[in-house]
Each structure stands twice: as structure tokens, then as C-alpha cells.
Design goal:
The complex is a heterodimer. By secondary structure, chain A is an all-alpha fold. Chain A has 4 helices and no strands. The chains are: A mainly alpha, B mainly alpha. At the A-B interface, α1, α2, α3 and α4 of A face α1, α2, α3, α4 and α5 of B.
Chain lengths: 103, 234
């Protein structure tokens, strides 16, 4: 990629990223939200994290990634028991690495 | 905008620590890929501090290495950032009283992981926009530094990126598991996950996460309808 191509890419993508991050927050900022909108906003975390987990674990184009699914189960157990992000990240990487070696 | 106090920095950094560690683990291989595209450590730092998007940066590197035209690269990387619209909307009630420059800095530095960490604390009640911004900026600095380090050591460091990136998957699982679970939450999560898989199957690619999450929220609103008065908050 040439320097000018990179510059065009950088400026265009940065504009989109900043707009996606800032516009809803700043535009909704000062207003009272209706109960239905508040309810919808409250559902976003569960929806987003379920979507991200599914996106990481399932690819319909390839065979099921068994080590990833088993490692995800191990992480779920740790998450329910400890609620700790650090432990989940460490156990997840360790379990996935070991299961990949074993597979 | 008043400067954060020592207590704000300490609370924010301690909340951000797991995310910062995860970002170091995944930022280094991301920086290695940036070096393969030809970015210097300084440019990798700048790019990471401003884009601040793991999915977007990995995608940028792999598309650039594949010789993809710039217009397609812009469209692909921009699309994976669209889910930020949802986070931005969800966080808006919590920064309503914050000064606009602080709200803008906070908004510009939200990621999947820092969104989860801050939402948990905002929902619990004992959190401020200043502390939430400390979480975002501390995480961003760890991400950008790890990318610069990766670009510096370059391909000399052969780290399997899929193992490193499983740290992020594990963090998402933990954040999902920590939600307040009810019948509606179950409907939301199951619909989101099933929609993402279906959308990927249909070829929605980068848009799958955003559209899947929107489908989940819609299903949750429908599931929450019976027995709920219109004047009732969440």
C-alpha cells in the first residue's frame, strides 16, 4: 500500500469510526428518553456480547471449532464461579492452546 | 473539563487492568501484522490510538496484504465499526451531565471490552464519566503501546494470533455471563447468537455482529411486552 493510499484509507475510516462512536452519544445526550428506548438500550449489552461470542465461535463456512467450543465452556465455568475478566482471559487462552495441541 | 483525581485514576485503572492485559496479549500480534504491511512503530501507535479497533486493524492488515483496493478496505473496516453505534446509544444516559469535551473523549474511546466494564459499573450506580474515561484511555494506551511493540519486534515474534485472540473471546463470554439473567435476557442472547450465525451463512460478513445484535434487541422488546405497562421504566 502506497503512502497516499494509506492516508486516504486512514482519513476515511477514522471519520466513520469517530461518527459511529460519538454521534449517538452526543446526539442523545441531553434528552429524556422514552421508557421503550431506555428498555431497548438496556438490552444492548446482552445482545452485543452474545453476538460477539457467536461471531468468534461459529463460522458456518467451516467445520465446528471443537477446541474453541470446549475452551469457551471452561471459560463459562470460570466466569460463573469467579466473575473475573483476568481469570477468564488466562483460562481461555490456556485451555484453547492445550486443546489445539491435543486436537 | 476538570482533571481526574488520584482516586479516579486509581479506580479507573484498576477496573481497566484485565482489559489492558488482554489488549497487550492481542495488540502485539496485531502490531506484528502492521509491520508486515509496512507500518513503523510510531505509525502503528498513532493508528491504534485513533482507530482503536482490534477487529478493524487485523482486517486492515490482512486486506492490505491480500492487495485489496483501498475503497473495499475502507468499506470493510468501516462496517466492522458500525456496532459502536449501539454502544454509543446505550452509554448516552450515563454521561448526560458530563461536560461535552469529556463526553466526546469518552465516546471516541469506547471499545467492546471497555463498554462492558463501564456498563457493569454504571448500572451498579457507583461510577462516574471521569472514571469511565480513565478506563477507556488507559485501555487505549495499552492497546497502542502493544501495537507499537509488535511493530518494533515485527515478524521475529511468531505468536499464534488465534490463541492470543481467544483472550478477547473469553472476555466477551465473561461479560455476557455477568448480565442480569431473566427470560428476556435469554431471548435477547439466543436471538443475537442465532442471527449472527444465520447472517454469516447468508454472507452478511462484517455486518453480522451489528445486525445480529439489533435482531436480539428487537426480540427482547417483543418478549418483554406482555404484562408491562407503557409507563414502566426498565
Amino acid at each position: 500500500m502506497s503512502s497516499s493510499d494509506f492516508l486516504v484509507f486512514y482519513v476515511c475510516v477514522l471519520a466513520v469510526i469517530l461518527a459511529c462512536r460519538c454521534v449517538p452519544l452526543l446526539a442523545l445526550g441531553g434528552r429524556e428518553l422514552s421508557p421503550r428506548v431506555s428498555e431497548a438500550l438496556g438490552l444492548i449489552p446482552a445482545a452485543a456480547f452474545a453476538a460477539l461470542v457467536a461471531n468468534d465461535l461459529f463460522d458456518p463456512a467451516t467445520a465446528p471449532n471443537v477446541p474453541a467450543l470446549l475452551a469457551a465452556l471452561a471459560v463459562l465455568v470460570v466466569a460463573r464461579r469467579t466473575g473475573s475478566l483476568i481469570w477468564c482471559a488466562l483460562v481461555g487462552m490456556g485451555a484453547y492452546a492445550l486443546l489445539c495441541l491435543a486436537a | 473539563m476538570s482533571a481526574p483525581t488520584k482516586a479516579d485514576i486509581s479506580a479507573g485503572v484498576s477496573a481497566a487492568l484485565p482489559v489492558m492485559m488482554g489488549y497487550v496479549a492481542i495488540g502485539i500480534p496485531c502490531g506484528v501484522m502492521a509491520a508486515e504491511v509496512g507500518l513503523s512503530p510510531a505509525v502503528a501507535f498513532l493508528l491504534s490510538a485513533t482507530f482503536y479497533s482490534g477487529a478493524g486493524q487485523f482486517m486492515m492488515a490482512s486486506l492490505a496484504l491480500a492487495g485489496t483496493p483501498v475503497a473495499s478496505m475502507v468499506a470493510s473496516v468501516a462496517l466492522v465499526s458500525t456496532r459502536q453505534l449501539l454502544y454509543s446509544a446505550a452509554l448516552s444516559p450515563y454521561v448526560r451531565e458530563a461536560p461535552r469535551p469529556l463526553a466526546a473523549l469518552f465516546a471516541a474511546t469506547v471499545t467492546d471490552e471497555s463498554f462492558g466494564v463501564n456498563m457493569e459499573r454504571f448500572a451498579a450506580g457507583a461510577w462516574s464519566p471521569t472514571r469511565a474515561t480513565v478506563v477507556n484511555v488507559a485501555s487505549m494506551l495499552s492497546w497502542a503501546s502493544a501495537n507499537a511493540l509488535g511493530a518494533l519486534v515485527g515478524p521475529a515474534l511468531a505468536i499464534p494470533a488465534d490463541i492470543m485472540s481467544f483472550a478477547m473471546t473469553a472476555i466477551f463470554i465473561c461479560l455476557l455471563s455477568g448480565q442480569r439473567w431473566s427470560r428476556v435476557t435469554l431471548v435477547v442472547a439466543a436471538t443475537s447468537a442465532a442471527s449472527v450465525v444465520a447472517l454469516k451463512l447468508l454472507g452478511a460478513g462484517s455486518l453480522s455482529v451489528l445486525l445480529g445484535a439489533v435482531a436480539g434487541v428487537a426480540a427482547g422488546l417483543v418478549a418483554g411486552l406482555p404484562g408491562r405497562g407503557r409507563g414502566e421504566g426498565r
